[in-house]
Amino acid sequence: DFGRSSELAFVVEPSDDIAVQEQPLILYCQVEGIQPITITWRKNGVMIVDSENAFVLANGSLYVSRFQRVRGDGSSDEGEYDCMAQNHYGLVVSRKAKIQAATMSDFHIHPQNAVVEEGGVARFQCQIHGLPEPVILWHKNSMPVNTDNERYTLLPKGVLQITGLRAEDSGIFHCVATNIANVKFSREARLTVSGSHSTVYKDPMILVGPENLTLTVHQTAVLECIATGNPRPIVSWSRLDGRPIGVEGIQVLGTGNLMISDLTVQHSGIYVCAANKPGTRVRRTAQGSLVVQAPAEFVQHPQSISRPVGTTAIFTCVAQGEPPPQITWLRNGQILETSDHIKLKNNNSTLSIYGINQADEAIYQCLAENSAGSTQASARLTVLWADGLPSPPQGVRAETVSATTIQVSWEKPLQNTKEIIGYVLHIRKAADPVEMEYQEAVSKSTFQQLVTDLEPSTSYSFYIKAYTSRGASKASEVTVVSTLGEVPAMPSLFIKVINSTTVQATWEPSIKLGQHEGFKLYYRKVHLSQYTGPVLLASNVTAYNITHLDASVVYEVKLLAYNQHGDGNSTVRFVSLRETVERTVLNPPCDCMKDEQNNKTSTTGIIIGIHIGVTCIIFCILFLMFGYRGRLLMCKNVQEQLSTPQIPRSQRSATGLVLNGATRRDRDDRDLNGKQLDMNELERLFPASPSQEQQEKGITSAHSLSVSHDETQISTLPLDEFSIIEEQPDPLPEDPHGSSPAALAPDHGPANEG
């Protein structure tokens, strides 16, 4: 009997119903428990007084003799009814039963005339509202439609589909709506089947797609989808979220309507109807949403409990449903009001009653309700009270010892002290809710307790209970006292030199500082006794720049945090700006404009120097390789080739030299951007030789370079690709024409980067 109090509980509760005008109505209610039990009824929260029209039967049910939707005085028997049962243990209230009058409106959609070619699809529809939902049947030529014909499909919402039309399908159609309130007939519509079956191709087309539906679990959903085309399209269904539709309870009505029986919440989703042309990817789609609601039901019921006075009682009530239900608590049939000692948590799923007393003894109900329905469960709280328990402890006092410590003292109770086994001190921040309270146990011979690890400048409440083996005493009077204030802790301080006259002081905000209102910053020259400051900074500031300092002296910087209780201890740092000044002198700031001009004037000399230096190194290596052969002719050729190769004046801006194995393409790209050789720079780098003998040997000075069209071009060997090969013992054959060994050097193409 989950969800029931053994002292008083419902066996049968009233349920939703649809009543017929001028007909009797019975609402059932059956209760079990400790007699005597009194049963009463309410409608829309108002007590129903027994009358000739409505009265309570002996079994507790409510009898309405002649149900009327609207009475002469303007009142109505429609509404929400609930049953209340009461005995000396408490009172419980049933779920609400919604009672509505059976009705039927006029048709707001009638079938329409249709002319359709043979082999096509015809669709008729009629709609009407009513309670309960009317059952709609179709007649053809005043006779019920033959539902055994597979080409005729009747959908629950008043739709008639006829596929593969034939001439004999022509006729006059109308629908008949029936419920317990009335029977109504729609207007008539004529169906005309014309011509013969066409063979002209037509793209698939969905005439009617699924509509959005909201239903309750265990009901049946019908999603309509009717398509035309030539050839006749194939209709298929899928879910937009990609989940499988499944097969259990799934049925196809007619040529493409989807019916889902015994709905569950898992059936909720967006359904897509697709009409495909056979053998192709040509398709048309339509979609509709299905929302399945579930009435509230309990996953965990509250349980009846017994607790000693002064302890805590907890009831748990967990419900599920779609949409998620709202939970409401009742105490003896009345909505439960929360207070300091009655708390609701976890979306009202947990009811906690702290420090219970005799007044809390009652029947507590959990009501779970959503748009699909409601349910209730009840449980009883019994407060245990034993005779001879101690009276409350006396003379409770609390004295502040420090910023984190309070001493609480008390005196023993006045009555029934022999069975006391100890005391329990209840501690709570005055601003916190009751559920944040905690306890400390104290021996029976101790009448004081030092409470430590408290927060500074905080108010705390204290009360005491005396405990015996049979239960606890009532709580003592509550005393409230505050801890002392505390100055903030030392902040962390860091000093950063910005330039020769400025330093930046930074510190880190931290909860270890405690409650603080701000910071004070001081600084001074170390040889002086007077500080500059304080500089007052807000609590959210974490940096400050100290400017206009003297770079030749050392400074002391001091920072502290303060609050209403005073200044905390300070953090001190020393800083010198002298090193910054020295670095500035050794590394003066660059004059970028001046350096740029100097760079422009020396660019030509640097380029020429690099080219000539690399050329000399290359030929020195070649000379070492081949010099031991004694080929004097080679030396002469090398000396003649040391002269800078001349090129036509129109190409004189090119340097013609490759560095570090660059390819000829790279060289050409650089030559296009090269600067024209400065002849004065050449004279400075290569002054004229004073020896006439050197001039006669053909060594050309820098200022007397001559142009020769048949001059030999010098191939350059990249230094990073160069290697010396050991001499083979076989002598090289001499060229009969007297060529120098330099002509046998390998051809140096572009460097192989592999």
From TrEMBL:
Domain Fibronectin type-III residue range list: 392-486, 487-583
Chief site of localization: membrane
InterPro entries named in the record: FN3_dom, FN3_sf, Ig-like_dom, Ig-like_dom_sf, Ig-like_fold, Ig_I-set, Ig_sub, Ig_sub2
GO cellular component: a single term: membrane
GO biological process, one term: cell-cell adhesion
CDD domains according to UniProt: FN3 (cd00063)
Membrane-related topology note: Single-pass membrane protein
Similarity remark: Belongs to the immunoglobulin superfamily. DCC family.
Ig-like domain span: 8-100, 105-192, 204-287, 295-382
Gene source species: Pycnonotus jocosus
Compositionally biased intervals (Polar residues): 644-654, 689-707
UniProt keyword list: Disulfide bond, Glycoprotein, Immunoglobulin domain, Membrane, Repeat, Signal, Transmembrane, Transmembrane helix
Protein name: Immunoglobulin superfamily DCC subclass member 3
Feature: compositional bias, Acidic residues: 723-733
Subcellular location(s) of the protein: Membrane
Residues spanning the membrane: 606-626
Listed Basic and acidic residues bias regions: 663-673
Region (Disordered): 644-754
